[in-house]
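Closing statement on the adenosine-5'-triphosphate sub-project.
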Amino acid sequence: MGKVIVITSGKGGVGKTTSTANLGTALAMIEKTVVIVDADVGLRNLDVVMGLESRVVYTSMDVIEKRCELSKALVKDRRVENLMLLAASQRNRKDDIRPEQMQDICEKLKEEYDFVLIDSPAGIEQGFHNAAAGADEAIIVTTPDLSAIRDADRIIGLLQNEGIEPINLVINRLSATLVRKGNMISKNDVLDILNIDLIGVIPEDTGVIASTNRGVPLVHTDRSPGAEAYMRIARRMIGQRVPIPDMREDSFLDQIANWFSRNK
Amino acid sequence: MDFRSLFTRKSKSSSIATQRLQLILTQDRFEVSEDSMKKLQIELTEVLAKYFEFTMNSVSMSIKREGNSYVLMADFPYSKTNKIR
Ligand SMILES: Nc1ncnc2c1ncn2[C@@H]1O[C@H](COP(=O)(O)OP(=O)(O)OP(=O)(O)O)[C@@H](O)[C@H]1O
Ligand SMILES: [Mg+2]
């Protein structure tokens, strides 16, 4: 029996779809069986980020309305074994689906796959509730800025009310340089404020844009800092103990100050 | 004195953001208006002022997440010389 993990955020554009694509791919690369589910009905994107848009024939809506078997609606990934995509309908609205219907799909998928990752839409409305309906666990994605963190806090409260646990945090687009200059909220401050478990930090990485352009998830690129960060999260998700490396957030002055206080 | 303050003239924007966020989230988590929060703060202070001496504007309140629940934290700094009345 696998697990269903919803990847959500509250605020839009913080990296949910990018994270779902990369974590799904990374988990399949380390030999897990995975389905990634696009729950962003009407604004689907996961197929595009995966480079699978031309292969999508059926969507979750076709499964719900019994036009197609669930197994037939799954699109096989082009690059990795054991990775499937369930696309969202582009012609429907988020409230055309009820939470029980999503739950039903999740229940069936987790009987056969190790991981079912749900790419949630932004917001706290019906679309979010549908995405979270079948979830056992959650990953919250936030960027280190005020509004994204505020919205993440709201979402954490909602997920806790639903009894979803654990809820893990991914901090995306962290720039060590900006933190050092005092222009970006640091990892530790985000953790201090949200007070949930951190599962990984993804640096700002221009490779993400190129990978989206190509329709090839970043984790296929060797030695990209973003790819390495996603691979480490995937390993943590399968229970391996992988440390979260510290990015050099201390400024030169901080380092001198640390040196002085050590040598007092 | 921290010698770094010689080099940095104004507060960093990230620490301003962190402070603002603490305040915003306390209100969000409370689900009450700023006014009600102020009122609660004043009333709590009035009760405690029967026993301790402190200045009103040094009092601060926040809500912290602890696992699945929330903890209301109120700081009433007072000096040790102030004995209980
Ligand atoms: N680590 C990163 N470095 C640089 N760019 C990034 C990073 N993560 C995401 N992006 C960019 O941010 C944009 C939004 O990402 P994405 O679509 O994954 O967010 P989302 O949370 O799914 O958005 P939505 O709420 O609209 O569904 C994309 O253009 C993506 O390329
Ligand atoms: Mg998205």
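The interface with chain A takes residues 2-4, 7-8, 12-15, 17-18, 20-22, 24-25, 28-29, 64-66, 68 of chain B (CB under 8 Å). With this model delivered, the sub-project is considered complete and its resources will be redirected to Aim 3.
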